[in-house]
Design brief:
Elements (H helix, E strand, L loop, with lengths): L1 H24 L14 H27 L1 H19 L5 H29 L5 H12 L2 H12 L9 H9 L6 H5 L6 H6 L3 H19 L27 H23 L2 H7 L4 H12 L4 H7 L8 H19 L5 H28 L6 H53 L8 H4 L2
Helix pairs in contact: 1-2, 1-3, 1-4, 1-5, 1-6, 1-7, 2-3, 2-4, 2-17, 3-4, 3-7, 4-16, 4-17, 5-14, 5-16, 6-7, 6-13, 11-16, 11-17, 12-13, 13-16, 15-16, 15-17
């Protein structure tokens, strides 16, 4: 159920890579300088991630206050409606305003998903659960790439192709009514707010289903240090041991998004800068996007809970730095696609590993607002780096963009490798005492 909601979210988020080409074709966006004298694609990505920043930093506290489930569902409706409204805009300003509003809903949703997932699955499978959730959610990436490839160059029934792409993405709101009756609240959140009986009923229901599936009783849970449930404010994340973790994750998030979204959101534009036509750029992007669901599935059944998540992040970010440099100088289509597929593998390893990792490092009382705060730095970073990538692409071409990306990924590897604590196989109360 989390992955289904994630699929809608990923589809909406990755429109940033494809819809601008259709907006240029429709004459709504300029291929050069647009609103406020900056590239319209950069403004489109910038408004999206500005919204993500606002949603993560300004509204994450409501997830800790009102619960994971209601905010999870409300944010899904909010960004879906904003996306639906964008499909009916005919000016660059209208597009960017709708994109900003959708970004706010997406920012809240991403924080809620991270907090919820680590609280609802046991310690021995948090990595695998995150990987499988990413795999299902990432089905949206080849979907939006394929739909964009088929529809953006044409006008089905006289309606611009980009509008069809956007309307299809807004269907996430329809899934809320199915999710509403089936998604339980986080038992940890309930316990932290004194609702022990409600938490017990949810856990007992989960145990009963598993026992029915296994055909036998579950063994008693191992004794561990109980979590000290309490109310806490924003100041909690600046006290030891969380202060060091907070600073580390601020640096990590600021730079990781440069590598991840710098490649993904700008892939068609980077390919076009290397001399490929719009149709071929979209086709190559669609082929590369097709492997997004496969990589986290592979990682989930091989390395997810076998190795420390911090080292998975270090290795993947280092690999992305090297592969990005190679990608920038390739011109043969087969090699471009092959290298792009490997970069996707490195990026997905980093992504599925860091999402549960940063949520594991904080206690239940402040988990969502802590994740929202550190995660907001990745969104703030992308607001500026969208324009920086546009500038580097114009002045230095694809090689300049990838030098920028590679340096950022090396900073990511250093921050987590040096300061990141170990979390594999530990209960949440052992990681965040």
């Amino acid at each position: 159920m989390v992955a289904l909601a994630g699929l809608f979210e990923v589809y909406d988020l990755y429109q940033t890579a494809y819809v601008p080409a259709g907006l240029v074709r429709a004459g709504i966006f300029s291929s050069g300088a647009g609103l406020f004298g900056v590239a319209d694609q950069a403004a489109f990505a910038g408004s999206t991630f500005l919204g993500l920043f606002i949603g993560a930093i300004a509204f994450a506290s409501v997830v800790d206050r009102f619960g994971r489930r209601p905010i999870f569902l409300g944010a899904l409706v909010a960004y879906s409606l904003a996306t639906f409204a964008m499909a009916f805009q005919s000016t660059a300003t209208g597009i960017l305003v709708c994109r900003l509003l959708a970004g706010i809903g997406l920012g809240i949703e991403l924080v809620t998903l991270d907090a919820y997932l680590v609280e609802i699955v046991p310690k021995h499978m948090r990595g695998k659960a995150a990987a499988i959730t990413h795999s299902i959610s990432y089905l949206a990436i080849p979907l939006v790439a394929l739909i964009s490839y088929l529809l953006i160059p044409i006008d089905p029934y006289g309606v611009a192709g980009w509008r069809w792409v956007v309307v299809i993405g807004s269907a996430g709101a329809l899934g809320v009514w199915w999710l509403r009756a089936r998604l339980p609240e986080s038992p940890r959140w309930l316990a932290n707010h004194g609702q022990i009986d409600a938490a017990e009923r949810i856990v007992a229901n989960i145990e009963a289903k598993i026992e029915a599936s296994l055909g036998s009783k579950l063994p008693p849970p191992p004794l561990s240090v109980p979590e000290q449930f309490h109310s806490a404010g924003f100041a909690e994340i600046w006290r030891p041991p969380y202060r060091r973790r907070t600073i580390m994750l601020m640096v990590f998030n600021f730079f990781q998004t440069i590598g991840f979204y710098g490649f993904t959101n700008w892939l068609p534009a980077l390919l076009a800068s290397q001399g490929h036509s719009l149709t071929k750029s979209l086709l190559y992007s669609a082929i590369i996007a097709g492997v997004y669901p496969l990589w986290p599935l592979l990682w989930g059944f091989t390395v997810a809970d076998r190795y420390q998540r911090k080292w998975q992040i270090v290795v993947s970010s280092g690999a992305a730095a090297v592969l990005g440099s190679i990608f920038s100088v390739l011109t043969v289509p087969a090699l471009v696609i092959a290298c792009g597929v490997l970069i996707v593998g490195a990026n997905t390893l980093m992504s599925y590993a860091y999402h549960p990792y940063q949520a594991e490092l904080y206690p239940t009382a402040v988990r969502a607002r802590a994740v929202g705060f550190v995660y907001s730095f990745s969104r703030l970073s992308t607001v500026f780096t969208s324009f920086m990538i546009a500038l580097f692409l114009k002045e230095f071409g694809a090689p300049g963009v990838f030098v920028f990306i590679s340096i950022s990924m090396l900073i990511v590897a250093a921050s987590i490798g040096i300061y990141g604590p170990r979390t594999r196989g530990l209960a949440l109360e052992e990681i965040a005492p």
